[in-house]
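Feature request, filed as a ticket because there's no other form

It would be nice if the structure record came with a short human-readable summary line next to the tokens. Right now we just get the raw output. Example of a typical job, pasted below so the devs can see what we mean:
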Amino acid sequence: MALLQLSVDTIRPAGRSERTVDPHDFMASGLDNPFLQQAYVTNRNRIAIIQNARSFLADRVVPAMREHLEIIAALESGDSDAVVDRIEHHLKLTLRWWGV
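Raw output as currently delivered:
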């Protein structure tokens, strides 16, 4: 978890400077299902369009990174219900920030 915390401290938003890790790509790299992998790529492309069309929300970065760490911790625990809960929580807050 310390390595992940270090990553959160060094992540920079796209277009602002180089990022050291993309938490979404990191988590998706563990998908062992071609259908889920394709869904991830499709969704990631859609999100990139939305992110490029909106102004950067600096106040969202730290909370979002904390949510990513919660998702990773749930993955590490092997608790699939907790993983789903944390992902749904992250999505809900992200959509709220986007005004959706």
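Something like this underneath would help us a lot:
Residues 34-53 form the longest helix (20 residues).
The helical segments are 2-10, 23-28, 34-53, 58-77, 80-98.
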